[in-house]
């Protein structure tokens, strides 16, 4: 992978705003709520109702779609709720499954629905420009944003402005994250101006809490132990379409590729084989690795590695900091992909 230099034209960015391969076949019907977590079943019910209201022709004055009618309560009228839903919960509770199910269930043509990660959305703005992005997505019925993040103040203002414009044009919004919208940015930056932006952004969403444990490891055995270097090399040579990289060299290469292109970096890769995995040296490197782990997981690419186990990738300081939920998600997903790679190991 460290020899790849992907280039992604803007038109491809728009065309690829659909659920990734791992979530092609997910639906509300095959989401399995944990019986011990009633919030999971409630999420399915709320999102099913939300999806049903997306494809209809109901429009308010000026041609804008009217997602929430006004209803009389005694002598007063009040608008019903915000124009989006926000799935909040820990890693591994099925938020992306539910978000993709919403995209599939919404009774609107595929070209009027968009699904992408927060990184992909900000990159789209960079490629098309703000106004063109508003025009492009403003014609959609639904925008789903996975892994909603506000890692720097500039992106906070950018996305807040973009979503406000899309709401004005009647676009329904749905997002997932590990943090409630009113607390986005906690532990990352604390400037009053940007906290104000966060609060304004959160007003667009109805928070929907999803409790539970990580389904990827629920009732499963421990992650497989790391392989030996020679096992990883032999597996890469024996697996068509596999890549073979030294872990440190791959991390260096990631610093030269924009995270929005990590999906293209993984294109047509059958398996990722890594030698010499070790704890990441700094937070910038760690965050790039998180994005790569997400793209590999989306594409169901198994990962066979030697070196330290994946649960030792991030330092205790990192796991206690403001990005801890990202790091735990990456550990969870890489562990799942390591299980998928078990069959690659030589007998």
From TrEMBL:
What's a BP term from Gene Ontology annotated to this protein? Answer: cell division
* Family annotation (InterPro entries): ATPase_AFG1-like, P-loop_NTPase
Q: Name one Pfam family in it.
A: AFG1_ATPase
Query: Does Ubl conjugation show up as a keyword for this record?
Result: no
Which keywords does UniProt give here?
ATP-binding, Cell cycle, Cell division, Nucleotide-binding
- Top-rank taxon: Bacteria
Q: What is this protein called?
A: Cell division protein ZapE
Gene of origin?
Answer: zapE
